[in-house]
Amino acid sequence: MELLHIRYFIAAAEKMHFALAAESLGISQPSLSHGIQMLEQELGVKLFDRSNKRRISLTESGRAFLPAARNAIQQLSLARRCAEEAEAGASGHLSIGALASALARKEFLAALADMRRKYPKVELEIIDEHSSGLSRRIREHSIDLAICRFDPQLFEDETLVCRKLFDDELLAVMPRSHALAKRRSLKVADLAEEKIIMVPQKTSPAFYESIRALCREQGHFQLKIAGECSNFYTAQHLLLAGFGVTFLPSSHEGLFPEALAYRRFSDCSPRSSVYAVFGDLPGSAPLHTFLGLLTKHFQQDEKSVTI
Q1: Are 189 and 220 in contact (CB under 8 A)?
Q2: From CA 55, how far away is CA 89, in angstroms rounded?
Q3: For residue 138, which of 72, 146, 164, 291 is within the disulfide window of CB 3.0 to 4.6 Å?
C-alpha cells in the first residue's frame, strides 16, 4: 500500500473536492484521482461516492478508513523522527562504566549534565567499577564506554579505541597527626619507612604497578604494604583510624580536609592516565555525542609526566 496514495485520500477527504485536494498537494487532479483509484483497488472498496458531480462524499468504508489512515501517517512521522533523533545521538541508550576517580571529576559531571540537558531522550546507564572490571566489560563489549586507567590488554585489542582523557596527579595522604603532615610537600624517598595502604593489584593493576615503580625508581625503596582496601574512599577511612599512609589520585583530594593531609611531591609530578575506551566500530550515535562532550570539558595537560 502506497503511503503517498493514503496522503491523497486524506487530502481529498478533508477538502471533499478532488481539484482542491490536488491544489493543496501541489499535484495535478488526474494524478490525485489515479492514486486514489489505485488505493481503492488495493483495498477492494470504494472510499468516495462520486455520484455528485460538484462534490464528493465519503462512503461508509471511507469514513471507517479515514481515522486509521491519519493514524498511519502520524505513526510514520513519529517513526521517522525517532530514527532521525537516534542518528543524531538525540535518543537511544548509552552505558558508561567509570572509575570513582572519573565520577569525581567536575569535567565528567559537566559532560553528563550537558548530555541530560541537551539530549533528554538518551537513556544513560552509569556503572561505578574498578579498573580491571571495566577492562573486562569493555573487552566483552557489554558496555558502550569505559573510563579507566591504562591496561595493556585494551591497547592490544584491535576492536577498541583508547583515547586519553586526563592525567590524574598522585598524592601522598596521611592523618594530620602524622609527622610528615607538617611538611607542605614531600619527596618520594620520605615514604621509604612508611607502611602503605593500597588498592589491590587484581582490581587496579595499572595504579598498583605505577606506585611500585614510583617508589623503586624515584624513591629507591621497595613498597611496604600495610594492608589493602577495595577503593580510595575506604583507604581514607582507614587513615582516619590511624592506618599509615596511602597514595591517592588528586580526583579524591580534600574529602576529609580537617582530618587528613594531602601532600604533593616536590621531586617529581607522578600522574596516572585515565582513558576513554570504546569499540572501534561505527557505534551508537549517543556514544559519539557523549565523547564530543567529554572532549569539550576535559583539559589535557600536555606537559604532564605519565607513569
Answers
A1: yes
A2: 48
A3: 146
- 261: number of Cβ within 10 Å: 22
pLDDT in tens, 188-226: 999 999 999 999 888 888 889 989 999 999 999 999 998
143 and 95 Cβ atoms separated by less than 8 Å: yes
Average pLDDT of every residue of the chain: 88
pLDDT at 137: 94
| Alpha carbon distance 164, 102 (integer Å) | 12
Flag whether pLDDT at 7 surpasses 50: yes
pLDDT at 73 (0 to 100): 85
Beta strands at 271-279 and 145-149: parallel, antiparallel or unpaired: antiparallel
Which residues lie below 8 Å from residue 231, measured CB to CB, with a gap of 6+? Answer: 100, 130, 199
Tell which residue, 141, 138, 140, 158, has the closest CA to residue 277: 138
Which residue has 550515535 as its cell numbers? 285
End-to-end CA distance of the chain: 64
